[in-house]
Amino acid sequence: MRQHALVASLLLVACGDKPDDGPIYNGETGDTYVPWPDDTASGTDDDGDGFTVEAGDCDDGDVYVNPGWTENEAEGNAADGKDNDCDGYVDESFRGIVVLQQGDGSSPARIVGVDDFGDTEWEVPLDDPTLIPYFMAPGLDSGWLIGTLGSHDGAAEVTIALYSVSAEGNTTLLWDLSDPEVYEFGLGGVAAHPDGYYLVCTGDTVSALEPDGSALTPLMTSDPEADFFSFDVAVDGVTGEIGVFGLYGEFALISRDGAVEVKRPLDPDNIEYVVWSGIKRADGWYSGGSGTSGWRVMRFNVSQNDWVEKISFDEEWTPHFLETDDVNGGFFVSSTDATYPIVWRLSEEDGTAAPFFRSPYEDFDFQLWDLYTRY
Q: pTM of this prediction?
């Protein structure tokens, strides 16, 4: 009996000295190691994987999704349809783009899914053919958010507005911005924030829009004619940091807790170019714009608080919105080229352009505007 007790005691000591390697979860792809939850973590950790929502867990209902994972074939999760490492990319693959296409008043505007080969995969026409949308963001749950700058209905009272769009194309008015006395500088870019709200630029304000349209809350205010004209906005999907792009090269950051830092204010006496779109890439904040040297793609140098040219391009077509392919490299630009609405792919090396998606609607009225990448 004493011998049995001694053996048990030795085993307990040995186990106590052994590092706690955590449990093994048997998933669809086989045995996969997941660390023990960190009992000291503060915040929401419903799945018990040791990473809180506040610390960047992008799916708190799945232990196989958190910033501590590595997503690749060696881990057996490169094709599970999940963003395992919470870097914004599902299976680290490029799946195509989604682009917003205007209508002509009789044929409605539509949201078009384009696959990774540049072919139309699906189309969702809007249920209201009078809407003239320019701005778009993916929906927080499903569908989309669109921003309109006009109406094909000449008698319409609502022209500049934000609408939710269901997966079937049903539109619901969320916020009317048509009153010029209230919204003097109109509507700019929109984005979806991972914390569950939309971001909206209106020249003098960057606001948070509740997904049901119940409130539009200012996050950043400015004087567009003196220090900052808020034109477009993008989000770091991992950190929740917000990048605000000014019309004349201004740039600001809004932290997840709401702190605003203007990195580059407006310099009315030194306007080098006009921004037409801003995006977040894995390696920084980028904008597309035009200046005295033509069309350019710029990257913001945070240490210098200024824009640095990455590529320039000289094309006959007029660029609209900028997007990126972080997996394969390069940029996408929606455009109008005579009667052909086209999304071009720009080389990251020299700025040369090649058609990626050529719309079947060969009409100037069916221009392509906002777009985003699918991973």
A: 0.80
